[in-house]
Design brief:
Elements: H1 6-22, E1 27-32, E2 37-41, E3 43-45, E4 48-50, H2 52-62, E5 68-74, H3 82-92, E6 97-101, E7 107-112
Helix pairs in contact: 2-3
């Protein structure tokens, strides 16, 4: 899995930096249909809990994105989160890739939403 497209590597790097900068369990980044990127961390409030991917997708949609080309999440978890896949599919459509990387930034899995 080392043959990553440079744009895919970029969103993994952005997701990794969001995780480290904000001290959150997950960092995510999404790339919209125009190539713009949106970066977020997981959100945990008493009245609201969002995964990093959900937050990044919401930021993209709120900024006017009409679709997604790809999404990435940096997490300790090894399995794709079903709510992340659903959020990516909602804005990106079926088949939009979700890249799952470890805290070291190494791609673990590429899953189609």
């Amino acid at each position: 899995m080392s043959d990553l497209d440079p744009e895919d590597q970029k969103i993994i790097t952005l997701a990794r930096s969001a995780r480290a900068r904000n001290g959150v369990p997950e960092g995510a980044a999404v790339r919209d249909e125009t190539g713009r990127t949106y970066v977020a961390g997981s959100v945990e409030l008493p009245s609201l809990a969002l995964t990093a991917v959900q937050t990044a997708v919401a930021m993209a949609k709120a900024s006017g994105a009409k679709g997604l080309e790809a999404a990435a999440v940096v997490t300790e978890g090894a399995e794709p989160n079903p709510v992340d896949l659903a959020a990516v599919r909602d804005l990106g459509g079926p088949g939009t890739p979700l890249l799952i990387a470890g805290p070291d930034g190494v791609l673990r899995e590429r899953v189609e939403a």
